[in-house]
Amino acid sequence: MTVRLNNRTRLDSEQPTDESATTTASAKSEWRWGRASRVIRVAVTLVVAATLLAGTMWGSDDDFPLGPFRMFAGVNAPNEPAPDPRVEAVDATGVTVVLNEHNAGLRRAEVEDNENTYVAHPERLSLIADAYHARNPKAPLLDRVTLIQRWHEIRHSAATGHWRDEPLAVWVRPS
Amino acid sequence: MMTWLFAPVPKARVAALRTLTYAFVIFDLFVYDSWIRDRGAVPSTLYQPLLIARTLHLPEPSNSLVHWVFWLLLIAAVGALVTRGHPVFAWPVFVLYLEMLLVRMSYGKVDHDRFAFLVLLAVLPTVGAARHGDRTPSQRAGWALRVVQLAVVATYFLSSWAKLRYGGPGWATGSVLARAFLRKGGGIADLLATVPVIMIGSQIGIMCFELLSPVVFLLPRRWRYAAVGFFYSFHAMSFWLISISFAPHLVALGAFLPLENTRQLARRLRRRRGTETSPEPAGQVAATTSAAVVRIPDQVGSRSGVVVDDS
Lengths: 175, 311
Known about the structure:
By secondary structure, chain A is α+β, with helices and mostly antiparallel strands. Chain A has helices at residues 18-30, 35-58, 108-113, 115-120, 125-135, and strands at 2-4, 10-12, 82-91, 96-99, 142-155, 158-172. Helix content of chain A is 34%, strand content 28%.
């Protein structure tokens, strides 16, 4: 038998039952809110899809959430060393602490994206120290914060196991 | 096209996904991204507001703002969970979650693992009343799940597009995966990163899988589930190797699955294990058959029939 949900959709069931009448009534009642709602849904779908497509082709991260999906989209040559940055701090007791989103509220990638700024203005590393202290008020003061780049050697798109560390920027607490 | 976009699905399917979604928001707040609560402590000098935040003149994240958003979002998510997604709670969840994402992404790094989940939060309030166990077909629910499916596939397909835009065809033979393995991996990932054929082969495989992901809409039901299983296994592998889970995206991926059958599946598994010895109470059977007027095997449009569930 045929169950007619509306003038566009027809659904066939295997055998006639009383329940199918209930289905028809239920489906019809669902569309009491009118054709306009369906047109709005189609329009919203098309506008979001078109904007996302435009964001992918011409947009940037700034256009989030309709910008390009560019995680891991960068180009890295087969023999290009892999940078692996970290922010290391030494506190007043001499203990070394690696600063990250869990203890300072900043992710590594966020530091990396602003790497040039930290290199040009090492004093900005004090902002990360400030964020650490705001989150850990009882922790010993951080006396020195260093942005370190670990360069992993890559050959033929694979790691060789060799690496070297390069300090990019250092901030020392004024005495 | 309209028929495909509005292909009806059982209301129970969207009800199950809705429960999963709002439960995940709570999990996200307390576990998955709990560190976001301390964003307010980061000096505002490091804040780089995104276009949408600048356009709407959203305030800079401060301790009080982040805490307000956190607690309001928690209340809204719990409210949406217990009121079966009442719009009074469901819309604020969408708005507050977006604000939380803006706080998260406005410090120099933007992720794309939340797009489909954000779409899911945006469409859930439009579904209307949907109860667990209610197998009444609904076109509103069908549209909601369809656009979430589109968002899921767009996340894959458009990320391959971005790879071609930023990396070019050379992306597939570059060293991006070795770089990711070294930076985020450990253990077996470090070992795999030293094998060129695995790295380049995986990159070519990822590019092919992402470019071909729209094919999932053309597959027959069983193959489609297999493809979705492959998507899940891909993310499981990523999590195992480099600790990137795409968890919110995995929730949205549930839009492809017949989640309304979860309880029956669990019951069947229990029976198979022999833990369920007593037969189903007669009253429960009657309730099930009266409520389950129609069973739709899947969201496949008008070419597929609706099967009366007289079992």
